Structures are given as structure tokens and as C-alpha cells.
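Let's practice the habit of predicting before peeking. Look at the sequence and jot down your guess about where helices and strands might fall. Then scroll down.
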Amino acid sequence: AIQGDVQVDQNADSAEVKLTSLQFANVDASGQVKASAVSTAPTFNGNLKTGTFDLKELLKTLGIDSPQTQDSAALTRVQADLAFSGTPQQIRIAPLQLKLDDSTLSGEAAITDVATQAVRFDLKLDRLDADRYLPPEAKAASTAAAGAGPAATTSSSAGKGDLIPVDALRSLNVKGKFAAGEVVVKKIPVRDIGLSVRAQNGDVQVNDLAAKLLQGALAGSIGVDVRGTQPKIATKIDLNNLQLKDLLAPFVPVEVLTGRSSLNLNTSTQGNDMDTLLRQALGQLDLNLADGVL
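Done guessing? Here is the structure:
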């Protein structure tokens, strides 16, 4: 259901649409759009705001299976508030605010060239507990067990499928920055996350990668080059002063190793399956457990 008002001024070559209510399934939104030079060189600007809605319920209404999550309340509180402007050739969304349960993503994004799908962004996330959105543990365990049988008989071919979506990466035209205050993964809080991304013509670079975790720090960069026949991956990652006890806690119920460790990952690999890439990378690892205690 749509409620609103449309005004067209032919003399001024402009138009305005006011939406007091736009209802679709369980989503209720409002906004407006103003356009000028409609018949010559159209430009537009406007805003859109939704009420809080249940994403799982929306997916169900659309006939799409909603993801099962460890926290049944996850994905049930979504709300968007944004302003936009542009022309038929480019679109900018600023400011942008998207709320997902207890998390807020804010910033701006743009398609600077619709023809080439050139995307630019600068986004910040305040906090996200990623564990809430993982599949329920019982279901994840049964899924893994169900797949163990066939995998055991085809272990020689495991990891031989294409790992990197070459065609998708070659088509990317992206440049942007992302930051997050805190992301919790496997009960491990990762704080002060930052990175920049540049992808064009099959060359994908993630630079200025930084984060704080396990009382230590991470810094580095990752590059993926898919311009040739085989993907090339260059990784420079330094993990310093990680607390081993906290690192192993989610995986090992008994405290078997304490102290601190550092990991230097400066690798150059080539290939597109897990086995090949792991074999090359593991031979280039530099792990320091000098302060570890067993």
C-alpha cells in the first residue's frame, strides 16, 4: 500500500514525490524524492526511512527460507535511514544508517559510474556479535557429521574445487574504507578494526589492515591478483603478542598452553584450491612461541 502525493511542475521542469507511507509485507517506510531538469539533464535527491521490521518474517513472506541462527532473536530488528542524490549516471547515499539488532552501520556509499558499476564507500560499524548469526551448534554439528562420510571416501579430492571466484573478482570496481569498533567471533572480541579496499581489473588489494585482539595486535595487507591464468595471493600479516590461553579457549576446554605468541605471515602463493594454497603458505610461516608455557 502506498500513500503520498505527486507534484509535477512542467514550467520548472521538476517533480516531487512525497511518500507518507509505503507498506510492503511487514516493512513500513516513508520518504520523498525531488527531481529537477527532468526532460534535459535530470538530477534527483531524497530520503527514505523504514520502521523497525523483522527480517526473518520478511523473508518468510517472500517465500525465502530465513537463516537459522544461534540466537533466535537475531535478524528480527532491522531499520534503515538514508538520504540519496544523483543522476542517471551516478548515485550517492549519504548519510546512510542501517541498524541490525544491536549493531549500527553508518557512513556513505556511492555508485560513481552506473555503466561500469564503480562502487565507493566509507562505512563504520559500532559493534557486532557474529556468534549470534552462526547456525545453531546442534545443526552445525549434524551437518558436519552428515558430510563426513562422503568426504572420507574422497579425501584425495578434498580442497580441489575453486576457492577464489575469479570471474566475480575480475568484474569488481570498488574502492573504500571500513572500520569497526568491535566484532566478536567465537567469543573472541576483535577491536579497533580498520581496512581499505581497492579492486579493479582483477587486482584486489586490502591495505591498512589493523585490529586489536587477545591483548595483542594485527597489522598488514592482502592482495589477490586474478588477471592471469592462476590467482596469485600475496599476504603480509603480523600478529604480535597474542595471549595463547584466550586464543585456544573457544576450541580447547582445558588450559594446555599459556603465554604469548607472535606470527609473521609473509607469503606469496599461486593456485585456486585449498590444498595447493595451504601447502605453499605453511612453508612460509614464521611462528614464535618463545613465551609459551605448556
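How did you do? The radius of gyration is 24 Å.
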